[in-house]
Design goal:
Belongs to the aldehyde dehydrogenase family. By secondary structure, the chain is α/β, with parallel strands linked by helices. The protein has 15 helices and 21 strands. Helix 5 links the parallel strand 8 and strand 9.
């Protein structure tokens, strides 16, 4: 795959509703953030499209619920095979529309196939439990069981930063649990999701079980509609709060933002920590909810660590996303890069020092390392979602643990240390969705329960855990 590809004709995206492909009356352009050319034309779904998609999903509930677990598992394995076969095509589309480095896009599609296989395995492991009714006089002589059943219709809204993998983290568990789905991807990354859905449908999905809508106009009604039983959203904290306020009694899973705290203690493997912090601050151009943003370093190793991080940052290759030698491409668009550039500029004007950084070129920003930051700077206390990090020294780590626990954020944090006592203290005292020991805040494996607390969200992603959320308990008592 050669760099550039700016002369390729735009592709045509269609909605999939009720087992049929459908065009829209309106379309929107999807542009390459690196080259500026039009990559695709995206349908803008209408209220009628939304109504038809929800009716189709509602109508498919019975077929999905009646499908035995082994058949759902086989269907998802076939879908995984199709995604793997089309990996290069899906990855290329992803890089063209998002500016993500092609090597990362290929890895994401490979992981996506793996997510579907994990979902297939979990489709035959959906379990309830026996309730010991004879624990009370009233229950004695009775048999009690808690059983799990699909919720019905899942509405899934996905972001641009990992468009295919995060779509799979919603679609896969929904189908594995016996639900139907209405998926609305980000309008900034619709082409790769469209190609992913084409691959999934080759697996023989029941008519109406998977439906796609595009554009943001239909999102408010999608989450509020009474035909939807469960809402799964990955995106920003402000939008997540709006969804939580509007869905009423529906259950939701919200995977929102964070500020990427990672600790490097004086007994850490300094070289490994420096490499990981630098690369996980700028990987995906910093556009990850758990991207390394605030690195807290023990004063005793501050100078050595800072030098090592700067050396590693200098080795990272930024450039054309379609070049396999490129490690970091662009942000999603120039407006996003301008926003991050503004955060960095305001920090420098307030006294911060830039050890690494440089001028913006369109949607591309170089990796930025800041020191001498203050806790009230937006570059510290707000989610950057860009390729920038700060290094902050400490003497006593406990106060920082408390500050993170008291902050609005609680997605994941990382800590590098060889002290078991300190690692356990971090796990016990930091109020967050996950603590990664000898890894950064950005570490994630697809089978693990991933998600946050406080403003960082609710619910957990990961096939087993999403399936748990996308099923409901029903008590069965036999007298």
């Amino acid at each position: 795959m050669s760099p550039g590809n700016s002369t390729t004709a735009p592709e045509h995206i269609r909605m999939h509703i009720g087992g049929q492909w459908r065009d829209a009356e309106q379309v929107a352009q999807v542009k390459n953030p690196y080259a500026g050319n039009i990559v695709a034309h995206m349908p803008v779904s209408s209220p009628r499209d939304l109504d038809d998609a929800l009716n189709a999903a509602r109508g498919a509930r019975a077929a999905m619920a009646d499908m035995p677990g082994y058949e759902r598992a086989a269907m998802l394995q076939r879908a995984a095979d199709q995604v793997a076969k089309r990996a290069e095509d899906i990855a290329r589309a992803m890089s063209l529309e998002t500016g993500k480095a092609l090597r990362d896009s290929l890895l994401e599609v490979q992981r996506t196939s793996g997510v579907l296989r994990l979902c297939a395995e979990e489709a035959v492991r959906i379990q309830g439990e026996h309730v010991p009714m004879d624990a009370s006089a009233l229950g004695a002589g009775k048999i009690g069981m808690v059983m799990r059943f699909p919720v019905g219709v899942v509405a899934a809204i996905t972001p641009f930063n990992a468009p295919v993998n995060l779509a799979a983290h919603k679609l896969g568990p929904a189908l594995a649990a016996g639900n139907s789905l209405v998926l609305k991807p980000s309008p900034k990354a619709p082409l790769s999701v469209h190609k992913f859905i084409e691959a999934v449908l080759e697996a023989g999905v029941p008519e109406g079980a998977v439906n796609t809508l595009y554009g943001d106009a239909v999102a408010p009604q999608l989450i509020c509609d009474p035909r939807v039983d469960f809402v799964s959203f990955t995106g920003s904290i402000p939008v997540g709060k709006i969804i939580r306020d509007r869905v009423g009694m529906k259950r939701v899973a919200l995977e929102l933002g964070g500020v990427g705290p990672t600790f490097v203690h004086r007994d850490a493997n300094l070289k490994a920590a420096a490499i990981a912090c630098a690369r996980n601050a700028v990987g995906l151009a910093g556009q990850s909810c758990v991207s390394v943003q605030n690195v807290f370093v023990h004063q005793a190793i501050l100078e050595e660590f800072t030098e090592a991080v700067c050396r590693e940052m200098d080795s990272i290759r930024f450039g054309d996303p379609m070049d396999m030698a490129t490690e970091v491409g662009t942000l999603i668009d120039e407006q996003a890069a301008i926003r991050v550039e503004g955060m960095i500029t305001r920090a420098l004007e307030s006294g911060a020092t830039a050890l690494r950084g440089g001028a913006r070129a369109g949607a591309q920003l170089p990796g930025t390392i800041l020191t001498n930051v203050k806790s009230n700077m937006s570059i510290v206390c707000d989610e950057i979602f860009g390729p920038a990090m700060s290094i902050q020294p400490y003497e006593q780590v406990e106060a920082l643990f408390s500050a993170i626990s008291d902050s609005p954020y609680g997605l994941q944090c990382g800590i590098y240390t060889n002290s078991l006592d300190l690692a356990l203290k971090a796990i016990k005292t930091i109020r967050t969705g996950g603590v990664i020991v000898n890894g950064t805040s950005r570490w994630r494996s697809d089978q693990m329960p991933y998600g946050g607390v406080k403003d960082s969200g609710m619910g957990r992603e990961g096939p087993k855990y999403s399936i748990r959320d996308m099923t409901e308990e029903r008590l069965f008592v036999l007298n």
